[in-house]
Design a protein that fits this description.
Blueprint lengths: L1 H6 L24 E6 L5 E6 L2 H6 L8 H4 L4 H14 L3 E7 L2 E11 L5 E11 L2 H4 L16
Antiparallel strand pairs: 1-2, 1-5, 3-4, 4-5
Length: about 150
């Protein structure tokens, strides 16, 4: 997704919302949202994929960011503002009680050429505790590694 965003950048390094082709992101659409900020700095979900309901526990489209974000709302909001301030992608992983929330924020220009939008990708992943084997179940008697 970052590579796609980079391909769309103009000479100033910015991407217009209109340049985004949903077909190019077809496999990720359920995890994608677009947040737009107004003059007062209030963010609103303009588009919200269906998987965001699982993350937020509610439908996000049309709602204010402040009304939707839950357990890790501060981190979500911080990622939005940092992407706009840096004019660059930002992302991370937040461990939650029900798994890991992997997130990515990509700044976008609105139809007026103003940097007021953020393309977001959010995905819930299994907890590391479910991915990594329990150290008690790993055989550690041999110091050699398999090739």
């Amino acid at each position: 997704m970052i590579d796609y965003w980079k391909q769309l950048r103009d000479d100033a390094g910015c991407v217009r919302r209109e340049a985004i082709d949903p077909g190019a992101l077809r496999s990720m659409l359920a995890s994608i949202s677009i947040v737009q900020f107004d003059e007062s700095g209030d963010g609103r979900f303009r588009i919200a994929g269906s998987r965001l309901r699982d993350i937020f526990g509610m439908e996000a489209r049309g709602r204010r960011v402040a009304d939707v974000i839950g357990e890790h709302g501060d981190a979500f909001a911080l990622g939005l503002s940092v992407a706009l301030e840096r004019r660059a992608p930002v992302g991370g992983v937040i461990e939650q009680s029900n798994g890991m929330h992997a997130w990515l924020r990509l700044p976008l220009l609105d139809s007026n050429g103003e940097l007021t939008m953020v393309l977001c990708h959010d995905e819930m992943l299994p907890s590391r505790r479910l991915i990594l084997p329990n150290k008690d179940s790993v055989h550690t008697s041999s110091p050699r590694a398999a090739a």
